[in-house]
Amino acid sequence: xxxxxxxxxxxxxxxxxVQATLPHSDPKANxxxxxxxxxxxxxxxxxxVGLPFGRYPRLVLAYLTTEAVRRKxxxxxxxxxxxxxxxxxxxxxxxxxxxxxxxxxxxxxxLFASTFQCIFHDxxxxxxxxxxxxxxxxxxxxxxxxxxxxxxxxxxxxLLSDRFFREATEAPxxxxxxxxxxxxxxxxxxxxxxxxxxxxxxxxxxxxxxASLALQFGSRYTNPRHFKKRFLGYLRSVxxxxxxxxxxxxxxxxxxxPSATHVAPRRAPMKL
Length: 272
Prior knowledge:
Helices cover 36% and strands 22% of the residues. The chain starts with 9 loop residues before the first strand and ends in a 15-residue tail after the last strand. The strands form four sheets. It has a four-stranded antiparallel sheet. The protein has a three-stranded antiparallel sheet with strand order 4-8-7. It has a three-stranded antiparallel sheet with strand order 10-12-11. A hairpin with a 4-residue loop joins strand 5 (115-122) and strand 6 (127-134). It has helices at 16-19, 55-71, 82-88, 100-113, 162-170, 177-182, 186-201, 210-217, 224-241, and strands at 10-13, 31-36, 39-44, 75-77, 115-122, 127-134, 136-140, 157-160, 173-176, 206-209, 246-249, 253-257. The longest helix has 18 residues, at 224-241. It is globular and about 55 Å long. By secondary structure, it is an alpha+beta fold.
């Protein structure tokens, strides 16, 4: 029940990665595209590395963005111990072939090897704009590959790219890190962050067509009814943590009515 600011649990996520998101599951390809209206996010990864997907890279991106906002620096320390970094993300550190530590290491490699393209295209207005970026222009990730030593990460850090650092710090989306850690599905994380971002600017009711939501959140769903059922199931889980939302389900789409954003941006104190 404690306010996120009072609990010291306010985090942030770069806006471009809220408007369109990473894959939920392994696309088994080296290119991935998400669309949200006129905005398109394209992610390209080396074939022998693969694309980032799932819950872990979302938690990492929130960690990097939050640290960039707090420290006002693109140089982000990941801590002196890999298992401690894992725990900071809300991931219980486990070893073994399918343990959280090796899975997180793999997702870090995929995330930092990928190139992101943000494209805005409005044919009716004859407008096209875009830019590309890496999450980090340099990273040094250290862990000991010997059995029983895999959790060490002495001195690991990343240097965020200038473009991503600006995206992360100029207009980040505030969120409650406790909710982010509690949500178990990447789909739930995407819905939660998207809702708090949309309600920050929403001034009148709007209906988002199911087809548009499918492009933004679930482009791999071939049956629209399957997507709608899955979306509403995850939405119910998000509402458990974000009961202030006012949403309605219709045949044409999801109705959003003006609601309190989950974590409001804190205003700077007035100077007298």
